[in-house]
Every structure is written in C-alpha cells, then in structure tokens.
Design goal:
The complex is a heterotetramer of chains A (about 475), B (about 300), C (about 525) and D (about 90). The longest helix of chain B has 26 residues. Chain B is built from eleven helices and no strands. Chain B is an all-alpha fold. By secondary structure, chain D is mostly helical. Chain D has a single domain, classed as Helix Hairpins (Orthogonal Bundle). In chain D, about 85% of the residues lie in helices and about 0% in strands. Classes of the chains: A mainly alpha (about 475), B mainly alpha (about 300), C mainly alpha (about 525), D mainly alpha (about 90).
C-alpha cells in the first residue's frame, strides 16, 4: 500500500475500532499517531526519491474521479500532522488537566487526524468541501468536550464554520458551472480571468478566510480556542486552521490565473499585517491566558497571509518556503504554548494572566515551555520561527520599494514580543503562597516542553531544510 | 406551453423566497419552523421540477422530514418560544443587495457552459456496476466523498453525545398513535428497502432509504415499542459504525490487496456497492434515530 | 594540532553553558555543589581562553561551523578582536562569580540566578566568538533573554518595571538589528568577518573583486547606508548611545553583581563590540568613510559622552551615578571607532578592556557599601574610608582611572584617543575629551573626598559583620572584598604595564595592525 | 431569461437571504434556519446548473445529495448545541 494512504488510513481505522470496542485508550491513539508518522516519513522518502505521484481513487481517470496527489509538501504535512498528534497525545495521556478523561477525546482526535491527512492529499474542490465540513464538525465536537461553559463558543464556531463552508461551496459551484471540472490540477490549466472566475474566487476566499480565522474574519477563534480543553486547543491552533489555509494556498498559487493573483496579493498581505498588529494588540490586552495564546494564533496567521499575498504579487519562490516554514514553526510552538498555558492555568487554578505571577517558581518547566515557544513565535534565533522570518524578510528587503512590508514584519515581531513577555515578566514576580490544592505534575510539564524544543531543533538543520524546501516542486 | 411553465416557475420561485423570508422573520419560533418545513417541501417540488428525482426524494426525507423533526424536538425540549424579532440592520440589508448583483452577473454566462463530466459518467456507467448514474457517482466514481460524508454523520452523533442529554422520558403516546406507529413502522421498512434496492438503477439509494427507516425508528421509539437506545449497547454501536467500517475496510483491502484505494475488482462492483449501501443505510437510519430521539446520558454522570 | 582547533571555540561556550544548565536543576540548598560548578566552569573557561590566546598569537585558526541558514551558517571563530573581549569576560566572570556567591549568601532563588548568570556569560562569549553577522545576531538575542531574568531577579515592583523597560528597548533593538542583518544579507550574503571589512572588498554586483573598493553604485550605496543605520540603531540600544540609553539607568535595581556584569562585561560591551565588528569587519573603514557614515557616528558618540557625564553629575544615588558614567564611558569606544584612524582604534580597543576593569571595580565597591553598611546614596559616603579602607581604596583607583589620571588604565586609552583625533584631523574631539574628563572629575572627586576626609556618621544605617579570613580583610565579607581588590589591581597594572606585549593596549595594537593592513 | 438562469437567481437569492438572516438575528434557532436556507440556496444553484446538460448532470446531483446529508448532520449538532447553550444561560440566570 502507498505509505501516504497508510498514514491516512491508520488514524481513521483506529478511530472506528476504538468507538466500536468502546475503548478510550490513549495508548491506541498514540500508537496510531506513531505508525502514521512512520508511514508519512516513508512517503516523504518515496516522494523525494521518485518525485511526486498521483493516485487515482477507484482507478478512474481524472475529471471523473477524485485524485490524490502526494508531493513533498503534502508528505511533509502528513508527517507534521502525525507528529503534532503524537506530541499532544502524549501530554493528554499523562496530564490530569488535559480534560480528556472519560470523554470521546481519543476517537475524535483520530478523526481530526484522518480528515487533515485527507485534506493534504486531496486535489478535488468538492472533496475539500466535505473534508472541511468533517474537520469543522470534529473540531466543534472537540471544543464542546470542555463542558457547558464552552457550548456558546462551540455553537458560534459551528455556525461560522458552516456559513464559511457554504460560501466556499457556492464558489465551487460557480467554478464547476463555468469550467465543468472539480479537479484543481485540471482547473489550473483552464482558468481565465473573467468575471465569473473572479467572483467565484472571491466567495471561496472569503469562506476559507473565515474558516482559517484570517483577519478580519477571525473573531470566532479566540473564544473557541480558549474555551476548548487544553489538548484540543493545541490541536486546533496547531493544525486545524492550517487546513483551510492549505486550500487557499493551493487555489491561489496553483490554480488561479496569475494576473488575478497579482491583484489580490497586496490586499491579502495588507490583511496579514493588520492581523499581526491588531491581534497582537488584543493579545496584549486580554485578561485570560488561553485567550492570549488564541489571539497569538490569529496574529501569527498574519505572517502566513503576508507571505501568501507577497507570493501572489511577485511570484518569488522563496515565499512558498517562508509560508510553510511559518506553518510548521507555528504549529509546534503553538502546541507547546497552549499545552503549557493550560497546564499552568489548571495547576494554579485560575484563567487569568495575573495568576501567573511567580510562575517561574510554582510551575517552572511549563513556564519555560511557554517562554521557549514564545521565543519561536517572536522569531528569536535560532528557532523555527526565526528561519521562517529570515526567509520571508529577504524578498521583502530586496527592493527599496518593498520595504514598507518589512516594516509590517517588524511591527508583528514587536507585538508578539510584547504579549509573550507580558507573561514572562509577570512570571518572574515573587510568587504568592501556593493554594491548598497546589499539586504540580513535573512530567506533564516536561511534555509541554517537547514541541517547543523541536521547534528550536528545527534550526539545527535549518540550512538543509530551507534548501530542500526551495528545491521541491510546488 | 411555455407560458404555463413560466407561471409555475415564477410562482414557485417567489414562494420559495417568501417562505424563506417568513421563516427568518416569523413572530414566533414555532411559526418560523413551520415556514421552514414548508420551504423544504417546496424545495423538494423544485428539485422534481428541475429533473432531479433523487434530490426530491432526499430533500423530502432529509431536508423536510428529519430537519423538521429535529427542529420540533429542540423547540419542545428546550421549551423555547420567546423570540425577539430581528432588528432591521442596515448592513444586513445592504450587503446582500450588493452581493446579489455581483453573484448574478457572475452566474449570467453559466447556462451557456457545458461540462464534460456527464458524458464521461455515461461512458463509464457500464463499468461501474450500477446502472443509475447518480448512484454510480456516489458509490463508485466519487466514493471517497461518500465515505467522508458517512463519517460526517457519525461525527455529528459523537458531537451530540458530548452535550446535555435530551430532556426526560418520551411522553405517553395516545392510543391512536400507537396503532398508527405499529402500522407505520413495517411500512417504512418496506419503503426503505425498496428505495435502497432501486437505487442501483433508478432514483433512490442509501440516504433516502436510511432516512425513511429512521422515520420508522423514531415512530417506534415514540410509541415505546423500541427500548431506549444507548451508545453502551454494542448492537447500536455496531449499527452506527457499520457503514464507515465496511467502507473503510473496502478501501483498505482494495488498496492493500487490489489495484488501488476504492478500486473495486472487476465483476464484484455491484456486490460491493450493495454491501456498502446496505451498511450505510443501517448506519444512517440508526444515527438519525439517535439524533432525533436522543439517547440515555452516559458521559460525565 | 588541527584536529582539536574546531572544538575550542565551542568548548569555551560550553564551559559556562553546561554548568549553567546543571545549576538550574539543583535544589536551593545544594550550595556547595553549585559553587563548585560555578567556579569550575569559570576556571576551565579561563584555561581554555589561555590556550586560545596562545594559539592565536601563533597564527592558529580556530573555527567551528554548523549549517544553519543558507549562506550564513553558525560560525564560531577565534580571532584577535574576539579574544580581546573573550579574555575580558572570562576573567571578569570568575571575579563576579566569587562576588555574587558572597553577595547572594542566604538570599532565595539562587539556583535560578546562577543558572541565568552562566547563560548570560555563555551568550557573551558566543557573541565575542561569532564569526559572522548571523551568529552574532543569534547570541545578541540570547544575551537579551539570559539577562532579563537577572535584571528582574529581585522580583520587586521596581525590578519588574526596569525589566519591562529593558525588554522594550532591547527587543526592539534586536528586531531592528535583524532587519539590518537581513538587508545586508540580501545585498552581499553573510560571509565571515574579515579584517578590513568584507563589503570593502566587493564590487557592486556583490562579487569579491581583487581590486579593493571599486565604485559603489548609487542604489547599493543607499541600501548599504540604510543597513548601517539599522545595524547601528540595533546595536546602539545595548551600547546605550543616546537617545537609546533609557534602559540602562533603570536597570540599576538589579543586584550589584548583575549591574557589574551588565556594565562592564555583557550587555553594554556587547553593543559596542558589535559596533566595532560592523565598522571594521563588515563594512571596513574605507567603505564607512566613503559612505560618509563615520562623521554622524562620531557626533553621536561625542554627544553621548557629554550627556552621560552631565546626567551623572545630577544623580545623588551612587549606582545611578555610576550608570550614567557608563553611558558616557562606553561611548569613548564608539568615538574611537568612529574616528577611523589607527591610533584612535587602538585607544578604543584598549578602552574596551580598561573601562570593563574600572567599572566593574566601582560596582563591586558600590555593592559592598550597600551590602555592608546600607549606604546607597552619595550623602551616606561620608567617612566611609575609615570603616572600609580597602574597598574605598579600590573605589578610588577605579574612579581616578575613569577620570584619566596617569598612569592608570583610563589615561592610556584617553591618550590614544586624543592622539587618534589629531591624527585624522578632528581636533574638536580633544575638547570633548577634556570636557568629559573635567566632568568625570566633577562627579568622582567629591565621592573620593567624602569617603576619605569627611567625618563619618555616628551610626551606619546597618552594619553587618562577617567572620574574617584575616584581620586585615575584616571590613566586609571576603568574597565581596577580594574581587574588588583584584580588579582594581588589574586596572592599575593595565595602565602601568601598558608597554608590555601582553597588555590590552598591545593586543589592541595587534588588532589594529591587522584591520588597517592594506 | 432561461429556466436555468431563473433558478440560478432564485438560488442566489436564497443564499443571500440566509446570509442576511445570519447577520440580522441572534436567536439561535433562527440562525440554524438561516444556515439551512443558505445551504438550500447553494444546492439550488448546483441543481440549476445541472439542468443545462441533458440528461440532468448526475455529478452535481450526487454532490447535492452529499451536501444535504452533511447539512442535516450539522443541523442536528447545531440544534443540540443551541438547546444546551440555552439551558446554560437559564441556569446562570437562576
């Protein structure tokens, strides 16, 4: 069997069997993530040696059936998804505070994994719609695991997600009406810059931006991500918002006519800068820990949007690398940050940022994880976030006329530094006497640190990674 | 008679818009739901008018039937009937107005365009194992979509399971309802089975059949013939999961032993499709029944 | 010989990094082990630096590289300039560690403190050994991160506020520096630092050409100028050039050993050291002159010197006065760099070490006064020399050196700076030097007078006594006293023995010979 | 104006009506209805497009069947969430 398919099948089958046998075993999920990771790495190896491959589902030829495409990027995304699930699963299995005991967290997270894996592989516009719905419903179910207090956020999340899907579907319907095919690779050769295409792309883009919580359509994200159980928040921020982003990237960079991309690029880039600044500002103002981290996700997605916009505008190849490096670095860092924030919040017994006073003394390792992850979000060297920013900045600084965009990156850096250090500064305060139920769990805290260490480890192989990513086909 | 056709189309179109508006702006929630169900029925009529009988069946069963039942049961359970009317919002009016023009101009040239796909479907229909093109697309050409869609139904149930349980017990049924229910239930089984079987070569199929069966299931549960259904009962779980399970198993086996992911071996297409449809019907029927009638609470006691 | 040379730069960094990480994991009461780790690390580092000094003076190349970014890997390299800074920091680290152990005796959270303390030194050393701009940037940011916990160590309101100000300045500076580095990278890549500057050896296409300094095209000039401004702005924050100096006086709330480290070794020096690197080894004197960038830098440095001194005069709190004095004194180095002549450069490089030795002495002494007698303000220093004669003697040496009294270290560097100014025809700089010396005298001499000649108060605010090693050293804890004496003597020797081959001045001359070599 | 175009316009109208409902109301049941109206509009656009081939495009029909099932699943979840959310606000009030 093709290893990429195995990487997709493993979590799907595990989820079903787990539901059937009524076992909520963390062990199975972790084993499935591990197997999926190994399969994804095998797929990556295969792709790098043999080049990207197309899988015709059902054996039918392309306009009729759905196709999967395994490229270096999709294999990398498969591996990344499995890795994040593995890391989060380890934490969720260990921590008392992961809010996963006695719930359907494990099968649902497997479904989440499977739907993301199929998203990376698919190339079909309608198939993406079904996957996005699956992803959205799974995410909502996971958010509502947190109990009744999260239901309002879950409801709003569901509604917006549905509305976004319907925007997307309307656009897809228009495109199908215009060109008669649904396969994005076939569409790539057919699209013309006429009014119908333009409108369809506009509607699709709005839908996807809403789903990916890209500024200014991000307002649903902070309550949903902050209200979810800790492990779920990590998965949502690290992975789920990246799904629609992937579709957006595919559509604009591979399918849409170049001249439309040129026109849309600056608008997207401007939205990206606005996201960096405004969400950064909100993160500095919010009184709650997890809301802060959630706003940081919105802000960091601004980098990706900026990279995408500039990519469309100038067609510089490095910006693909920058975009995906941001996604990987942010995923790892944000997983760590959410886990650390949740662990600290539960250990200290308060959702407020102010409760983190003296956290370096009461929950030192989790606080360290928060800081290390934050360092990568700011883009301090030598972290994954720094690599991404380095690659992004070069094309921005190449021409003096592009420099204003670099200023946007500068502002984003400062904003992220502000909200990260807002927490860190507080944690060096002298701690208040511990609460009576204070009972820290060092192992869980170390597990929150794991993804953050990996994101800094990314930098060790930075040169290889960047050169490899610049070399692979997009 | 183009004039009569236009009259019909015009009336139908306006009725649809009016019903939609009424559902959104009705004075009470109850009225809104009634308007909405009427809208569903009109939609089914429209699909039939547009030459899509599969959809007409599906809409009548799913859109109007199940959604209506869900809406009413929500109204009943949550005891909601207070309703603040929507305040006229200038943005909410202006934005759709502009968007309408934009979208309409975008859609203007579309009736002239032609897709190569229908011809391809027809060309490969004989290899697909079924003779009804819609079923061929659903369960063969685009079977992966359908697999994911069955998963969506499952996830909806899993999601509902995480929430509050439905309120209280089923009310005591009237005698008349008891009698009707006993009559209705076997009927639904027959109709559902017929729809399923017919789906291979004429309009009909798993979803329609599953929905009809679910209606029977709901009726039986309401009159108390069916015992309370719960996730903890393994037959229920097996029924709910059967569709996805068989589908995934077929996908895995074809990928592992056969020629590729969901590539049915020549000759056994029809058997496999029937098997999948049968299981999917069972799953959808059980899942929808559980979604409407709810189940015993077991999470977080 | 070749087989181990790549290891040495890494080993120098690890000699403080590993103890630092180990210390984090220690329990609060494992005091002996902690002290052992600290001192072992410091001694090993000094030994390694000694080996490297010997090697570099014999022409051995020490080089460690790791691929990290395309065209700009992680590169550690031991050259003459880096050794000037590395030696300073390793010697002062040893002294400050001893001092800090004494200073923080019985205070809470010492594992955390010494952990970050070691990280801070590791970052400083890494920064000194950085062989290209990317590596420099990396350690520059790490230094910010490692220093912040030290600044806020006390956890008081004032400390947290100071920490916040420190972060705002340094992180913004870091971001600006990053922009500059990337901009330069897009223009010319990130080659190794080269004596004489790699940009001077490149033509407008960014290729190395054999003919030095071919015509720089217009747009390239503009880009290079902008990059220079960004780099100087980024480095100027740590170097406390006006108007970017605001964090330094506030950071005074940190414990005395931290202040000593910040002012003499780590943060401020890192900024100035970066300036030296950028001007000499990235742009090269020729390019800087050609782009007309040295003159504004010179004005900025001169203004900072005068401004710092004037503000120091206003301060009534001892540590604050010392802080503004740092603002002023560190700019001497920037001044020497901007003068762009061999003599001035020699003076600047010597001052890098001299200022470190003198300022660290002064901070140790200020810490001793505060710790032993509770004296924080200048008014409290009356007659303090009678109670603590040795500390006051060290203080006097440091202060006189700062003023530039011969034959102390400060005199040597100022003398060379003055000669350098005359050499390049910027005579007005002499006026600045004289004015600053007068101002220095105006804010240091009264302290010396009060300390020795004014009548002591009947009772000190507090009067702590520790068991003495020797009756002569009984005025305060020996671990507080010895480092102060040690550095005071060093600063005296640096001036007296400036003619020797091993003096900072001689080493500075060696560097300058290489930088200004045709 | 052909039949196809007429139903396309009606579909777009329904879609926008749903959107309008989403923006204009805060009542959770009505919001769910609005979403459903929006999806009906989308489906109508798709079915109208299906009529311009002969026989009626089976691919689009199949897509709409899939869409309908997805929509009803999502509606079920949304309604239960709405009910639970409502109960919570009532709990808070008492």
């Amino acid at each position: 069997m093709n290893p990429a398919l195995l990487s997709l099948l493993t979590p799907l089958a595990t989820a079903i069997l787990m539901l059937l046998c009524r076992s909520r075993a963390a062990v199975w999920t972790i084993a499935a993530s591990l197997l999926s990771l190994v399969a994804a790495i095998a797929a990556l190896y295969q792709v790098t040696t043999d080049g990207s491959q197309l899988i015709h589902l059902g054996g039918w030829e392309s306009p009729l059936a759905i196709r999967f495409r395994v490229t270096a990027l999709s294999a990398l995304l498969l591996a990344f998804t499995a890795l994040i699930h593995l890391l989060v699963g380890l934490y969720a299995a260990r921590s008392r505070h992961s809010q996963t005991r006695n719930t359907d967290y494990w099968p649902l997270s497997c479904f989440l994994h499977a739907s993301l894996a199929s998203l990376w592989l698919s190339t079909d516009l309608f198939n993406w719609y079904v996957i996005l719905e699956l992803l959205g419903l799974t995410a909502v179910a996971l958010v509502s695991l947190a109990g009744t207090k999260a239901h309002r956020a879950a409801f709003n999340y569901l509604l917006l997600s549905l509305a976004a899907s319907l925007c997307y579907l309307l656009g897809v319907a228009l495109l199908y009406g215009r060109y008669g095919v649904l396969d994005s690779l076939l569409l790539a050769d057919m699209l013309e810059a006429d009014h119908t295409t333009r409108t369809a792309l506009l509607v699709i883009t709005l839908g996807l931006m809403l789903k990916a919580a890209l500024w200014p359509l991000h307002l649903w994200l902070p309550p949903a991500h902050a209200g979810a159980p800790t492990a779920v928040s990590a998965l949502l921020s690290a992975l789920v918002v990246k799904g629609p982003l992937f579709v957006l990237w595919m559509l604009w960079s591979q399918v849409a006519p170049v001249e439309l991309g040129r026109q849309a690029g600056p608008a997207m880039a401007a939205a990206g800068v606005a996201a960096l600044v405004s969400a950064g500002w909100s993160a500095c103002r919010t009184p709650h820990i997890k809301t802060l981290v959630a706003y940081s996700t919105v802000a960091q997605l601004g980098y990706a949007l900026l990279a995408l916009g500039m990519l469309l505008r100038w067609g510089v190849r490095e910006l693909h690398v920058a975009l995906w490096l941001f996604v990987f670095a942010h995923g790892l860092a944000k997983a760590s940050m959410f886990l650390a924030a949740g662990e600290m919040q539960s250990t200290l017994g308060s959702k407020k940022v102010s409760a983190l006073r003296g956290a370096t003394q009461t929950v030192p390792v989790a606080m360290f994880a928060f800081a290390v992850a934050g360092g990568s979000l700011i883009g301090l060297p030598p972290s994954g976030g720094f690599l991404a920013k380095w690659v992004l900045l070069q094309p921005l600084l190449l021409e003096p006329s592009h420099w204003p965009w670099a200023l946007g990156v500068l502002l984003g850096t400062l904003a992220s530094a502000a909200y990260v250090f807002r927490v860190i500064a507080l944690s060096f305060d002298r701690a208040p006497p511990p609460r009576p139920d204070y009972n820290p769990d060092p192992v869980a805290q170390w597990l929150t640190l794991l993804p953050a260490l990996l994101v800094w480890g990314m930098a060790l192989g930075g040169e290889t990674l960047i050169l490899w990513m610049s070399g692979v086909a997009y | 008679m183009p004039d009569a056709e236009w009259l019909f189309d015009g009336t139908l179109g306006i009725l649809l818009l009016v019903l939609a508006g009424a559902a959104l702006h009705a004075r009470s929630l109850y009225a809104a739901v009634v308007m909405f169900i009427a809208l569903g029925l009109m939609l089914a009529l429209t699909w039939a008018r547009l030459g899509a009988p599969d959809l007409a069946l599906a809409e009548a069963a799913i859109g109007a039937g199940v959604t209506g039942a869900l809406l009413f049961s929500t109204l009943y359970k949550a005891g909601m009937d207070r309703h603040k009317r929507a305040t006229p919002n200038r943005i909410a009016l202006l934005l759709p107005g502009l968007a309408f023009l934009l979208l309409l101009t975008a859609a203007w040239p579309l009736p002239e365009m032609h897709s190569p796909l229908p011809d391809q479907v027809m060309a490969h229909l004989k290899d697909s194992g079924v003779s009804h093109p819609v079923t061929a697309v659903l369960l063969n050409f685009r079977a992966w979509d359908t697999l994911l869609e069955v998963s969506v139904v499952l996830i909806a149930l899993l999601g509902v399971r995480q929430l509050y349980p439905s309120h209280g017990e089923v009310p005591t049924p009237w005698p008349l309802m008891l009698a009707w229910g006993r009559l209705l239930a076997p009927l639904t089984v027959i109709v559902g089975g017929y729809l399923l079987w017919r789906g291979t070569d004429a309009p009909g199929g798993a979803f329609q059949a599953g929905t009809v069966l679910a209606a029977g299931g709901v009726a039986l549960r309401l009159i108390g013939v069916l015992p309370p259904l719960g996730w903890h009962q393994w037959p229920v779980r097996l029924l709910v999961l059967a569709g996805v399970l068989v589908f995934v198993a077929v996908a895995a086996l074809t990928a592992w032993l056969g020629q590729g992911w969901l590539h049915y071996p020549t000759g056994s297409s029809k058997v496999l499709i029937l098997l999948i449809e049968l299981m999917a019907t069972a799953s959808i029927a059980t899942t929808l029944t559980l979604l409407v009638v709810g189940e015993k609470r077991e999470l977080r006691p | 010989m070749v087989s181990w040379t790549w290891l040495l730069p890494l080993a120098i960094i690890l000699s403080s990094l590993i103890p630092g990480l180990l210390i984090f994991s220690l329990k609060e009461r494992q005091e002996k082990l902690r002290t052992f780790l600290n001192l072992t690390g410091a001694l090993v580092k000094m030994a390694l630096v000694g080996v490297m000094l010997y090697g570099v003076s014999n022409g051995v190349e020490f080089r460690f590289s790791l691929p990290f970014l395309p065209g700009g890997g992680l590169l550690l390299k031991g050259d003459a300039l880096s050794l000037q800074f590395v030696s300073l920091s390793s010697v002062l680290w040893l002294a400050t560690t001893v001092y800090a152990i004494g200073y923080l005796e019985d205070s809470p959270l010492r594992s955390r403190f010494f952990g970050y303390f070691s990280l801070c030194v590791s970052a400083t050393v890494g920064l000194a050994l950085a062989g290209n701009l990317v590596t420099f940037l990396l350690f520059y940011e790490l230094l910010t991160l490692a220093t912040f916990p030290l600044v806020v160590h006390r956890g008081t309101k004032a400390a947290l506020r100071a920490g916040r100000v420190y972060l705002v300045y340094t992180l913004a500076g870091g971001a600006v520096l990053l922009m500059g580095v990337v901009l330069l990278h897009t223009e010319a890549g990130t080659p190794d630092f080269v004596p004489g500057g790699y940009l001077s050896g490149m033509d407008s296409e960014g290729n190395f050409s054999s003919t030095v300094i071919s015509g720089l095209a217009g747009e390239r000039d503009f880009t290079l100028t902008v990059a220079f401004v960004l780099l100087v702005a980024g480095l100027g924050v740590k170097a406390a050039l006006i108007p970017l100096h605001g964090w330094l006086p506030q950071a005074m709330v940190a414990p005395a050993p931290v202040s000593a480290l910040l002012h003499a070794v780590a943060v401020v020096k890192a900024g100035v050291f970066g300036l030296v690197r950028v001007v000499y080894d990235v742009y090269g004197i020729e390019s800087v002159r050609e782009l007309h960038l040295n003159q504004p830098l010179l004005w900025l440095a001169a203004a900072t010197i005068i401004y710092g001194s004037v503000r120091a005069l206003e301060q009534r709190e001892l540590k604050k006065r010392l802080a503004y004095s740092t603002v002023s004194q560190v700019s001497y180095i920037a001044l020497g760099v901007a003068l762009a002549g061999p003599l001035a450069a020699t003076g600047a490089l010597a001052h890098l070490v001299h200022q470190g030795l003198m300022k660290v002495t002064l901070f140790y002494c200020a810490g001793n006064f505060a710790e032993t007698l509770g004296v924080h303000r200048i008014e409290g220093m009356n007659g303090i020399g009678r109670r603590m004669p040795l500390t006051m003697a060290a203080f006097t040496l440091g202060a006189l050196g700062m003023i530039g009294v011969p034959p102390l270290a400060g005199f040597i560097s100022k003398w060379y700076l003055g000669l350098g100014a005359l050499e390049v025809g910027q005579d007005w700089v002499l006026l600045i030097l004289v004015a600053s010396a007068l101002l220095n005298a105006a804010y240091f001499l009264p302290l010396i007078y009060r300390g020795w000649f004014a009548a002591p108060p009947d009772e000190w605010p507090e009067d702590k006594r520790w068991p003495a090693l020797h009756p002569l050293l009984g005025e305060t804890h020996w671990m507080l006293l010895l480092p102060a004496l040690f550095t005071a003597v060093l600063s005296l020797l640096a001036g007296l023995l400036a003619g020797l081959d091993i003096s900072p001045l001689a080493w500075g001359q060696l560097i300058v010979e290489r930088e200004f070599a045709p | 104006m052909s039949t196809t175009l007429f139903y396309l316009a009606i579909g777009i109208g329904l879609w926008l009506m749903g959107l309008h409902g989403l923006l204009a109301t805060r009542q959770s049941i009505i919001l769910v209805l609005a979403i459903n109206i929006m999806s009906s509009g989308t489906f109508m656009v798709m079915v109208a497009l299906a009529t311009h081939s002969d026989p009626v495009d089976p691919v689009l029909q199949a897509l709409v069947v899939t869409g309908l099932v997805v929509a009803v699943s999502a509606t079920a979840l949304a309604l239960r969430l709405a009910a639970s959310r409502r109960r919570r606000t009532e709990d808070d009030a008492t």
